[in-house]
Amino acid sequence: MTGRRVEIVEVGPRDGLQNDPTLMPTDVKLEFVDRLIAAGVRRMEAASFVNPKLVPAMADSADVMAKVPRDKGLTYIGLALNDKGARRAIEAGCDEVNFVMVASAGFGLANQKATPDDTADQLDRIAPIVHDAGKPLSATISVAFGDPFDGEVPVETVAELARRAAAAGAVEIALGDTIGVADPWDVRRRADAVRAAAPGARLRLHFHNTRNTALANVHAAVEAGVDVIDASCGGIGGCPFAPKATGNVATEDVVYMLERAGIDTGLDLGELIATAKWLEKVLGHEVASMLSKAGGFPGKAA
Ligand code: ZN
Q1: pLDDT digits over 257-302, tens only?
Q2: For position 19, what pLDDT does the model report?
Q3: Beta carbons of 161 and 101 less than 8 angstroms apart
Q4: If you measure from the C-alpha of residue 189 to the centroid of ligand 1, how many angstroms do you get, rounded to a whole number?
Q5: Of 1, 105, 240, 261, which shows the fewest CB atoms inside 10 Å?
Q6: Residue 134: is it exposed, middle or buried by C-beta count within 10 angstroms (0-12/13-18/19+)?
Q7: Distance between Cα 191 and ligand 1 center (Å)
């Protein structure tokens, strides 16, 4: 195991905050970003260019992007649901644009008024805009493991969307378990299917811990050779359009598991735990992560 490195994309400032009951002011968001950088985070989602009336927590995304540190090696991903959002993300200075496809119509129509085919067509229109701006394009296939309204999502649908994303020029494809229904064996199956359908694209996995399987799913993904994992500090998060969706897998829980096994993440567990505890203070509620309660082992992180 040693010698392997897994990149963790921190999604707390976007996926984490967008469904928290507490609306975090811009200056506090910026402190959150600073703390994450101090913990070693180099790539993160900090902004979403969606309808501010529907997602008020992301209304200040352009302002956040204008004020975040721009040190070399830091990459900020801007999320978009359509071409207007992609243009706003580019204007705001995001380093990457992430377009959200949907694997099933039930969630797709509720979240962004689009079917799976619609989102693939939209991606074809967005790709030239992002490429002309000289930015990398990535695609997240949301509800890739199950849909809150339609139920099971065929693996073939996910593979076909991945094929279309790669054909449009997405350099990275993320499979999102938006409502936390994946199991570790299905993670393997879908990772293999997507790699076969889009062999040129990097694969990223995005898990929510709604049913307590997220860490097992991360393990399955890493065992399947996936090198990029989404996580949110504290395990904060959810989705306003996915009923009962709970937080992302917690960054510190993933870091503990991987580092304990000798897999390098480049992140500092003690700083992450301190940030999770800080989040509890500024959000006014407990966070879901286990490591923020138990601390690391051996010693070091209190
Ligand atoms: Zn999510």
Answers
A1: 999 999 999 999 999 999 999 999 999 989 999 999 999 998 754 4
A2: 82
A3: yes
A4: 20
A5: 1
A6: exposed
A7: 17
